[in-house]
Specification:
CATH architecture of one domain: 3-Layer(aba) Sandwich
Helix content: 40-55%
Order of helices and strands: HHEHHEHEHE
CATH superfamily of one domain: NADH Oxidase
Mean pLDDT: 95
Structural class: alpha+beta
Strand order of the largest sheet: 1-2-4-3
Number of helices: 6
Largest sheet: 4 strands, antiparallel
Radius of gyration: 18 Å
Length: 185
């Protein structure tokens, strides 16, 4: 693959929830995409990735858990109801976790590996014609949500990614140039 093709793929990736919530994404495609997460750099080869694929009524169960979390922290009714429904917006919701490690430096490195793996998945999803959206929130630390995702208490939930077939186009967002510093000997 030429660099121009990679640049085009990266630049066409859009964060979007304009997806058809009723059009299924084949699970074999989801599994292919998740497999690419494990190709991210991973210092010390700790293989920290933990992935949960949520489809069907599982999305509603996730919404109930997050709504309960929001109620517990005193959120207003509108926010609680939004939490209850929001995971139904896409046919596939992926939860990405980082396995716990007693060394805080290793935990930071492993979180970086999980984030890099998610980017692999997002780019591959774009190449497959899917729309995606990376989401986070304080609800990710809730023990009930971690348990739902199959994570241990010490593990960290890093991201939620919505996947689906686009039903609208999203214009690119202007981005400032990345600052570059040069150091010469």
């Amino acid at each position: 693959m030429e660099l121009l093709a990679v640049e085009a793929l990266i630049q066409q990736r859009r964060t979007s929830l304009r997806v058809d919530p009723d059009r299924a994404v084949p699970l074999d495609l989801v599994e292919r995409l998740v497999h690419l997460v494990g190709w991210a750099p991973n210092h010390k080869r700790t293989w920290p990735w933990r992935t949960t694929v949520v489809t069907g009524e599982g999305r509603r169960r996730l919404g109930e858990l997050v709504a309960t979390y929001e109620q517990g922290r005193g959120a207003d009714d509108a926010r609680v109801e939004k939490a209850r429904r929001k995971y139904l917006r896409a046919p596939v919701v992926l939860l990405f976790g980082r396995a716990a490690h007693p060394d805080p430096v290793r935990c930071a490195e492993d979180r970086d590996a999980v984030a890099a793996g998610i980017q692999n998945l997002l780019l591959a999803a774009t190449a497959a014609g899917l729309a995606s959206h990376w989401a986070t929130g304080d609800w990710m630390s809730a023990p009930t949500v971690k348990a739902f995702a199959g994570l241990d208490h010490e593990d960290e939930l890093v991201a939620l990614v919505y996947l689906g077939w686009p039903n609208g186009d999203v214009p690119p967002v202007d981005r400032p140039p990345v600052p570059i510093a040069y150091v010469q000997a």
